[in-house]
Amino acid sequence: MTNIDVLSTRFAAFDKMHSYESREQSYVDWPFREDCYCTPEKMAKAGFVHCPSENEPDVACCFFCLIELEGWEPDDDPMSEHLKRSPNCGFLTSKKDFTEMTAADFYHMERDRLKVYLKKMCHKKMAYLREDIDRTLGRLTSQLDI
Ligand SMILES: [Zn+2]
């Protein structure tokens, strides 16, 4: 699971990933090419940006909904995987391609992308807070048992 710092970094960098070409250029070391279905072209068309790490060379993240997928198989269909795991993604439900967007369309996409990011951040912060509360409660309870 992505941590808060990774999520923030990706959100900030992905404002340049509305265009297919920018996403496609991120697949420099993508392991699936010839004889595969999930090629860099199909990954980029489905909204994914390649976000590899040392231990996870096939991590891809949607620039819009920030869903992270890994463990790709050569025959996976990026668009159907995206639809299956994030059916309400604003990129998938958008009627216009980036090249057809007006400035107002782009503004609305960015506003919605910000909402998705803030919602994810709130969920992560609440999860950290819950863990902290549970740890503190555990410590206090153990002191009462003495
Ligand atoms: Zn998405």
Structural overview:
It is built from six helices and three strands. With 146 residues, it is mainly alpha-helical. The protein has a three-stranded antiparallel β-sheet with strand order 1-2-3. The protein starts with a helix and ends with a helix. The structure holds zinc ion. Zinc ion is lined by residues 47, 62, 64-65, 67, 82, 86, 89, 91. The site of zinc ion has 9 residues, from loops.
How would you summarize this macromolecular structure in one to three sentences?
The protein is mainly alpha-helical and about 150 residues long. It contains 6 helices and 3 strands; from the N terminus they run H-H-H-E-E-E-H-H-H.
Jot down its keywords.
three-stranded antiparallel β-sheet, 146 residues, binds zinc ion, ubl conjugation, Inhibitor Of Apoptosis Protein (2mihbC-IAP-1), Chain A, nucleus
If classified by CATH, what would the architecture be? Orthogonal Bundle
What's the alpha carbon Rg, rounded to whole Å? 19 Å
Instruction: Give the overall pLDDT as a whole number.
Output: 94
CATH class: Mainly Alpha
Which stretches are low in confidence, meaning pLDDT under 50 for 5 or more residues running?
Answer: none
Number of helices: 6
What is the topology?
Elements: H1 4-13, H2 20-25, H3 40-45, E1 48-50, E2 60-62, E3 68-69, H4 78-85, H5 90-93, H6 103-144
Antiparallel strand pairs: 1-2, 2-3
